[in-house]
Amino acid sequence: MAKRKSVFVCQECGYESPKWMGQCICGAWNSFMEEVVRDEPKSVRPSMQKGSEALAVPVSEVSSSSGRRIDTGLKELNRVLGGGIVEGSLILISGEPGIGKSTIITQAASYISQNEGPVLYVSGEESAQQIKIRADRVCKGDLSRLYLLSETDLDRVEEAIEKLSPAFLIVDSIQTMYTEALDAAPGSVSQVRACGNALMSIGKGRNIPVFIVAHVTKSGELAGPKIVEHMVDTVLSFTGERSQDLRILRCLKNRFGTTSEIGAFEMREEGLAEIANLSGSFLEGLEDGSCGAVATAVYEGTRPLLLEVQALTGTTNVGFARRTAIGIDNQRLSMIIAVLEKKAGLTLINRDVYVNIVGGLHPEGTSTDLAVAAAVWSDERGVPIPSDTLIIGEIGLTGDLRPVQNAEKLAAEAARLGFRKMILPKRSLGRMLKKPEGLTLAGVKSVSEALHIFDK
Fold this sequence. Notes:
Rossmann fold, Ribosomal Protein S5, domain 2, 3 domains, four-stranded mixed beta sheet, 23 strands, globular
């Protein structure tokens, strides 16, 4: 009897080793699993066959067309994707269980089936009846061209695709799919790699978009092997608190557009509803006269976004001061606190500091630095900052303020939402060509100068 050949594969990065290792080269511990290797003849690509020749094509002769984009019926989803779904693209969406992944793709599938052609929804976790119940609740219009298939065998899925020729394919989820050509269990590196390659061949070969759903770990990272992230064209992350209705869709990778856009939805009984005025929803709890609450603004993708920063300081009881931040980087908070102690005269060595971005958003960039500093200063000094005042600015280690990009558009959005005053870096004020009516602009050079406005 021939000895079975096997290889040990890291479930985090896909690294293969002939023997078991405690720690992988990627740093993960106890991540290796044994997988059987079959001795099968490798298929020879046509370009590598005898008598064939590989031809290189000049860049000038390659078409630069990015393909037609398909409307999903959800403007926020279209925005995050860069204008819609590109034909033949592979899109991966991940998120915690119950966050709304299946809901958003069901709504998109319903719209596409009514306007583009038949849609095949492959589910390895739910039955057709469960999907039908959800579709009746969240979808509108005719669903006769939305086809459901409860299957985990990818070979049978390919047969269904061959018969139906769908305009859109959904696979929920990639960790449940397997092919009988491999002995490995579903969700392993080998199975995910094989199924991913097969789906990529289907999408690229037939020029149909493929939507792949993936699970996440407790830490929020994509579950299973990371190789699936490298294979797809777009990676979407759907986040939010299940105790709240707000859901944020963010693009982590996009070969056909930007990764800075975000989409906002509200979970309702009839499905996900788009939030047109996201800034208003983040600021609805901002009250005048509250210490430690400050309004600020960031620029996400192609639109300005206003939000609320909250800070709380308290006496340290455990021997060392705690620095806890939700929505901003902890190291960034430590730097801001150090600047406040050095340049603004605050003594926070024996004070716990907590900072939170309301709404669960994690804004990118450093335009919220001055607002975080003002919120900490406001709570520590007991001086409220008016709710009709907006604060933006990046803080340097010297305490000086650096200019913020798109300050003019942020000011226009602040004026539209009824703010009366805006504090910003003086260099940003000097670069503004048009100043909105009804909004007083105060340009400052340093953190101490900005806080002196309220210390009266």
